[in-house]
Predict the 3D structure of the following.
Amino acid sequence: MDCAKWMILGFDRARDDELLGVPVKLCAPEEMIWMKAYIMERERFDGADIVHISSLLRGGDRRRHLVRRFGPDWRVLLKHLILFGYIYPGNVRESRGHCGEFTLTRLRSEARTAGPEQLCRGTLLSRQQYLVDVQDLGIRDARSGRAVFR
């Protein structure tokens, strides 16, 4: 699904409210999780926000939407689910619901069929910390689809 369709879908999930007498749309919690999940810079990491929002997330529909929303980036979602279980060990069952079972099953399946592709998705998470991989080592950059040598 292309980015424009996902943006429209995000607004479809927004809740109508009012702020200072002005009608506004409030971002759905699962959309906030998706937006914050990719922020992993050295100086900024929104993992605590994601864990707090996730602890309030109820309903299978919202969790199924999260899995669809992350799509091929399901490992990013899995990372946050693992972090949730570490931070709240008494609530592991919540993190292992539909999202957790789906991503763990996919991880097991992928481990048996992993190919030789050299791809760096780290550049999707940090604008600088993985440049050495694509610029010096020649690993293909997931943002552009090609290796960028200096």
